[in-house]
Amino acid sequence: MTEHLLLARQHIQDHDDPTITLKKYWGYPSRVLPCKNDAGSCAYLDAVYNGHNTSMLYTFILWGVMIGLAVVCLLVRGWRMEGASGHPNGLFESLWQRLTYAKRRWLSSDVKSKPMRSLFGRTSRLQVTILAVLLAYLLIFSLVGGTYKTWVTPIKNSTLHNTRTGLGPWADRVGALAYALTPFTILLAMRESVLSLITGIPYQHFNFLHRWTGRIIFVQAVLHTLGWTIVEGKLYQPQPKVYRVFISQQYMIFGVIAMFIITLMLVLSTKTAIRWFGYEVFRIGHWILAILYLGACWGHWDKLWCWMVASLALVMIDQFVRSARVVYLHYGGAKGKAQITILGSAAENDLVVRLDYDHEHRSPWEAGQNFQLTFPSLSIWESHPFTPSSLPGPNAGTQHHTYLLRVRKGITARLAALGDGATVPVVMAGPYGRAYPSYRAQNILAVAGGTGATFTLPIILQALRQQLVNAPHFAFDFVAVVKRGQDLLWVREELMTLKECSERCKNLRIKIFVTRENGKASSSSRVDASEKMLEHATSSSSLESEADELLGSTGNYTVSFLGGRHPSIAEVVGDFVERVGIVGGSLEIVGSGPEGMGSDMRSAVALLPASADVSCYWDSRGD
Question: In 3D, which of 319, 309, 310 has the Cα closest to residue 288?
Fold first, then answer.
């Protein structure tokens, strides 16, 4: 089909002439040689085919650079793991520390200016820098090596003329780069992420680049469409005959369909559309539309089928591995149901759903990892990542899972509507994400905001298990920021365990900040709306007693009531760093909670001196 596209589109090559020779071009229709047209048309064809070769070269360079960077990341990660095992290389270790400090100082904190914050949200400078580099590459190579000339060529048996410019080859360049960028965009969206295996970065942190590369492809598609619309609808004559023939061709029909689909994907991906139609509609619709878009792109220009085949293969691999992991996790194991406990107050828009269930594991998860949970009785298409606040037993076959879910709209609201004490079937996939703390961790600061305690509590408990193996001298700080004192009852067992550890272990400090109470609230008001909290609770008086114990400061366990204020995360970090200066060793700072807290933490860590051997990770969530 595409062998005759250039003939139909530009009306200047005769592929049926028996005296000509066809020169093959990868990704484009063959060229007719020798050129028997007027001098202007022949010069234009030279520009078209030379421009196509250049475009293909730029797409291969794009992927060559990305593959090269992936190899470097893999080698560096392997070298770092070897260094953590006790075989550091002095020269490279020194260089790595300098690079790490430069990254932490200049790239780790969030963008600050209001225009940047409104455009990108609370995003690190590193992510924005990577996006800027990609945009610069695409901009430069969309313009460099192009033809910027105009040829006015005659039309046989007509007084009209065609105006031939570099606009068509430039539009093809932009379209080719969009095709080459498509597999990378899908790589960024994969839950079973190859990029995570290479870099060690959890898959959810690639979502920012996935969203923006998708928008870049949309802009490229618009520019490609606009360029050829001007060429075929204005510059070529006679009109409207030329444009009518152009738009009626099969490859153009597929192009119009692809443009419509990617526009629909962009609109349905906005926060407003997700709020109107729900996350489930977005998730299912996005996946279906992506498949249809890839098929339409293949139909539009099948000479570049390789990019679409690669994209479809990545989608299918991701879905297959997801399904295989679910089957592996559940095959032969108990198909348990989660017990629902409703916590908090609906009147204050402060509801939390606690899920508890047991599951037989072939291999347990590690602290800091999360599972994708699906509730088949509510929706078989929708799954969400949740971090268990429970820590797996080291030798147990059946493990207990506990999750805290802040009730918003969508699936969490439907879970809450089932009522306190109800049960719901759960299907898990995972675990996903990086395990914390690292085995070289000596000093750990864990900061939790709201339900972020589900991420940080297991990390501290795991660190206490392994600290005797790593080093006799260590410093652990657990900091929890909650709205009300009763919120501590969400994780009362884990927090009580940690409090008992702080009484025996002087190197462990626990700091609780209650932001919306001033300390004068009675015990009964603290446990208000939580009396039905757990089935095994003997009475509300026992909850009052546990709440009073959790809210009482003793030794290394301190509770501060801020009466409407929020704690300074910079002071929390600074206090911990000062303490580590006495103990010595490296710092590992982890946290989870509202994005504002994460932004404050990254900013505080960025200001630490170069001598501080520190790593920082923030697991973002609503609160």
Answer: 319
